[in-house]
Amino acid sequence: MNRSLVSLRSALPSDAPDLAVLWSDVLRRADHDEQVADLVQIIEAAASSPVERLVVAEYDGEVAGAVHLRISTLSPLNLDQTVQAISPHVFPQFRRKGVGRALMDAAVCFAEEEGIGCVATAAASASRDANRFMARLALGPQAVLRVASTHAVRSKLTAQSPAAHRTSGRQLTQVLAARRSMRRSQAPTAG
Fold first, then answer.
1. What's the CATH fold of domain 6-136?
2. Cα separation of 160 and 126, whole Å?
3. Which tens digit of pLDDT belongs to each residue from 102-114?
4. Residue 175's pLDDT band (boundaries 50, 70, 90)?
5. What are the extents of the domains in the chain?
6. Which of 2, 35, 73, 163 would be a feasible disulfide site paired with 20, CB 3.0-4.6 Å?
7. Which strands make up the sheet holding 6-10, listed edge to edge?
8. Is 189 exposed, middle or buried (0-12, 13-18, 19+ CB in 10 A)?
9. How many whole angstroms separate alpha carbon 39 and alpha carbon 95?
C-alpha cells in the first residue's frame, strides 16, 4: 500500500514562526518577531473568512510548505472570480516530494468547492524551478508584476522628464523671489 507522506491542514497561530521562515522573502521587511505577529494576524483573519484559507502542508509530520488561498476577481478590471494561490512555498528539503502539487491541489479543490473556474498564482521571476512547475500545471503568464520603491520610481520619472519640466518649478520660484526683492527695493521708505 502506497501511503502519501504529505498531508494538508489549516494553519494555526502556532505555525507562524515556521511560516515566517518559509515566507521570509515575501513578508514585509521587519524583525522576525514582527513578521510572526503579522502572520498570526493573517492566520486568524483567514480562519474566520469565507473567502480565504491558509493551508499548511506537512511531510511526515513536519511543516513542509504553505499557501494562502483567496477568492478575488482576476483583476480590478476583469471581474471574473478566481482563486488566488498566493505564495505557494515549499521548504528546500521537502521539494520534489509532492508538497507543491498538494498545495496547488488545495487551490483547485477550493475553486471547485466555490464553483470558481479559474486559479491564479505567481512565482518569482528569478525562480526557474517554480515557473516550470507552474507551467507544467497549465498555469500560463497573464501579466508581469513589476515592483519598485516609490522613491526609485520618482527619481526615474524626474530624470526622464524633459528638462523644461524639471526646472520650471525652480525657475518660477526664482522669478517670484526676484519680483519680491524688486518690490521691496522700490517701496518708499517711511521717514
1. Aminopeptidase (3.40.630)
2. 27
3. 999 999 999 999 9
4. confident
5. 6-136, 150-186
6. 35
7. 6-10, 52-59, 62-73, 81-90, 119-121
8. exposed
9. 23
**First-to-last C-alpha distance (Å) of the chain:** 110
Closest alpha carbon to 43 in 61, 72, 17: 17
Q: What are the grid coordinates assigned to 49, written together?
A: 473568512
The residue whose grid cell reads 522700490 is 186
Are 55 and 9 in contact by the 8 Å Cβ rule? The answer is yes
What is the pTM (predicted TM-score) of this model?
A: 0.79
Contact status, residue 86 vs residue 67, Cβ threshold 8 Å: yes
Q: Could you tell me which of 13, 4, 19 has the C-alpha nearest to residue 99? A: 4
Largest CA distance in the chain: 110
